[in-house]
Design brief:
Peptide Deformylase, 3 helices, about 30% helix, globular, binds zinc ion
Length: about 200
């Protein structure tokens, strides 16, 4: 029996300074084999980097697609509600969100965030504590839920990526000031790499 997927690959994660990270993702109308392959490769990439979420932009595709799995994090709780009832987070993972619509709920909460496109750069970011989400899964089925804690934060961070928004845009000026030099260096390295690959 033929496997519909090619071999699953760890993809290169684009770093800050790459223009695709600022591109708004295109809505996915048909979940074709290429999208299924991309989803599988994105999970592989995210797990290899020990991340909790990865957006399509981070692997060079400006699409409304992100993958999330918070099970690897034991010290930061997540909450999930399905049809108004609290539900088990682990059994809801891994999570594929296609064309997600996210509505912020609840009071703003500060929490630490990093990003695979910004290695070693962490800051506290204030975001709404919970979100209501409507999205499609990898089979094109619509589903909805409410998420809080780490999961709610990861969803907001990843869906920001789908609109070309980065966590540095959400940092307060003091945090941004602290990482300013690292950001400038990372951006310069990325741009240097891009012009070197163009020159080849
Ligand atoms: Zn990120």
């Amino acid at each position: 029996m033929a496997d519909s997927l090619n071999s699953i690959m760890v993809l290169p994660v684009l770093k800050y300074g790459h223009p695709v990270l600022r591109k708004k993702g295109v809505r996915i109308e048909t979940i074709a084999a290429e999208i299924q392959q991309l989803v599988a490769d994105m999970f592989e990439t995210m797990y290899a980097a020990r991340g909790v979420g990865l957006a399509a932009q981070q692997v060079g595709q400006s699409l409304q697609l992100t993958v999330i799995d918070v099970r690897g994090v034991k010290d930061r709780p997540s909450q999930l509600w399905l049809k108004g009832h609290e539900a088990d987070v682990a059994s809801f993972m891994p999570l594929v969100l296609i064309n997600p619509m996210v509505k912020p709920m609840g009071k703003p909460v500060k929490g630490a965030e990093g990003c695979l496109s910004f290695p070693e750069i962490y800051a506290d970011i204030e975001r709404p504590g919970e979100v209501d989400v409507i999205a499609q899964n990898e089979r094109g089925e619509s589903f909805s839920f409410r998420a809080g804690g780490l999961l709610g934060r990861a969803i907001q961070h990843e869906t920001d990526h789908l609109h070309g928004i980065l966590y540095i845009d959400r940092m307060d000026s003091a945090s941004l000031d602290e990482v300013k030099e690292e950001l400038a260096q990372l951006q310069a390295e990325t741009k240097q790499g891009l012009s070197a690959s163009r020159a080849r």
